[in-house]
Design a protein that fits this description.
homodimer, about 30% helix, 10-stranded mixed sheet, elongated, 2 domains
Chain lengths: ~375, ~375
């Protein structure tokens, strides 16, 4: 395969292994897997989940729900707080699929019902410690108010509770991740108990890649919604959720300039390709990506890590010490593991597999 | 106009005023304006430059050059170091337009000529202090070597020297910007003098938005290539290159959750919409955007600034103190000025004008 410009490589074997791994883990744990498709945003990768028996998914916007509904997904959870302004698109979508919306306030739901014409399923988002969105896990009056409103409205069905323990991203070891998982699950189970008499079918849904990667016990939980683990990335490796070998995407970037006097190599590959999330390495270095050696079978870790130290719109600036820098030539194509796979995949809008197949995804965020 | 989801608003009046302003300034200064189109990446906005007499442009990739060539632009400078791996696309493009490539090393140019079939114009990029790419301004042997190679090859025409004083982005006042401009221009003129006897038609091209916004004296310079000033953004305001009133784009973001107990408002508008460049405000606060009030005529600055404190993939988290937070309701649509217009425009892939026209742009970075 000839790589001549920034290209997001997808190692299909690694990706399918990641998919199989989580699917089997969920089956063994007797928990339903509803993978989050915001990471790959692609019909093709979605179909790989379908091949192993997955028939429902999670998305992060109504637009993304519409994209996957067009490919036949008919049970879709939008794990983003209900935006009632999108009621027209919600009505259109709920005609063609089972649409599960995420509720964080009764006000938004009341507004929605003013123009709602189709049946929808409501999950109340519970804040189990991340403090981004959701009703606080102990705020029973607020939860009661939402549950009551759902119960009285003919177009609304109460589906249960949903949480996203995103504070797991601050973890730096398996034990820290597990602690967050167990605390979060305990809070969800307490809420579940409180409402299960009235709603015997209610479901508890949790999910983020760190906890789903590390935990094996999902007792009392009905559903998990991890997304990133389809690809993984450097952030997940730092958190302790994956190894380098599990990372299934790498950007191919041509070398366009070399400055040995300041130990810098410039590649074509910048903020428009990677987006701009970064990590601080142990010694305080800022890292926007890590260089790997592209091979005919994919990519290999170098003996010593080489980092992307900064990104401008189209330029990537690598910090390359001697003697490594002497081995690099203009026109070489380097692989770079992304810090945040979801944003990189979103920025690129397509993938190329190791055998050269182009895999399309949603493009443009408007 | 009904705004229901994250939408990148473009104030056509402000944008055209920015375009007129730089066009008139360039005319008065007797310097050619070759605007950088990487900021807007849109045929429509490009056409607004054409309407005021601009007939050549700058781009940051061969892919972007091809996009604008398809709209009839026939004199295009690619202000990114030559990537000779793209020779096939370069040959195709150079058939339909005057293609000016940016050379930072003789090696890349030699490699290019092995498969080059069309005439191209070469500009040597000079590093005047930014230290990203380019030949050091005093490295005459390297410059001589490139000039000699160009002179001997029948398909190559030497067009002159190009620089990008990107270190102006570290400035925080007009006087700092002007100092960088004068130093950079002085280095370029010295190089120009050295080669003008042999190449009487050589051109000196400089350009970045801060220096082009603040400087009025471009004596001895032939061409300027600013890009960002078509829209401007918070970064440029902090640098001292524009005022808030000149910023011509704002993201419309629906409010989906409000947490008065922690002074936070959550909007739909995240990293996939804004990208993730941020600023540190004077008191050390991180800022991913600044809230404005949307009106029927566009937007207005609030009395007290309200910042976007963090972004996840689809969520924007605003820090909103009391009493402002009491005035915000779920379903309100807030305007947010972006930190870095170029990356935000690239992430969105389209604009909507204040009267509801959709303006398309290039989408996907693959």
């Amino acid at each position: 395969m000839k790589l001549v410009r920034p290209t997001l490589l997808l190692d299909e074997v690694k990706c399918k292994k990641n998919i199989r791994h989580i699917t089997e883990k969920a089956r063994k744990a007797h928990v339903k897997l509803r993978p989050h498709f915001k990471t790959h945003q692609s019909h093709v990768v979605g179909a790989w989940f379908r091949e192993v028996g997955i028939n429902s998914c999670t998305v992060s916007s109504i637009k993304m729900a519409a994209y996957f509904a067009r490919d036949g997904w008919d049970d879709i959870t939008v794990a983003f707080p209900l935006n009632y302004l999108e009621v027209e698109e919600i009505n259109r979508l709920a005609k063609v699929c089972k649409l599960n919306l995420c509720i964080v306030s009764v006000d938004a739901l009341k507004k929605l019902t003013e123009k709602l014409t189709q049946s929808i399923h409501c999950q109340i988002e519970i804040d189990t410690g991340y403090h981004r969105t959701g009703v606080d896990a102990t705020n029973y009056p607020a939860i009661d108010e939402i549950v009551s409103f759902i119960s009285t409205h003919p177009l609304l069905t109460f589906k249960g509770f949903l949480s996203h323990a995103g504070h797991s991203y601050a973890a730096r070891s398996s034990s820290e991740i597990l602690k967050i998982h167990m605390d979060s699950v305990a809070l969800m189970k307490t809420i579940g108990e409180r409402y299960r008499n009235r709603f015997p079918k209610l479901e508890l849904s949790v999910g983020d890649t760190p906890t789903c990667s590390v935990a094996t016990d999902f007792g009392g939980i009905d559903e998990v919604r991890p997304g990133n683990l389809v690809f993984y990335d450097l952030m997940q490796r730092v958190i302790g959720a994956c190894t380098s070998e599990q990372i299934a995407i790498a950007m191919a970037c041509p070398v366009v300039a070399i400055y040995p006097e300041r130990n810098e190599v410039i590649v074509h590959g910048g903020g428009v390709h990677f987006s701009k999330d970064f990590l601080k390495t142990e010694d305080g270095t800022i890292c926007f990506g890590e260089v790997v050696k592209l091979t005919s079978q994919g990519w290999e870790q170098p003996a010593r890590p080489v980092y992307v130290k900064s990104l401008s719109q189209e330029h990537g600036i690598l910090a390359v010490p001697a003697p490594e820098i002497q081995k690099i030539k203009i026109g070489d194509v380097l692989g770079i593991l992304p810090v945040h796979a979801c944003l990189t995949a979103d920025a690129m809008g397509e993938y190329v597999t190791l055998d050269g197949k182009v895999i399309e995804a949603m493009t443009g965020s408007a």
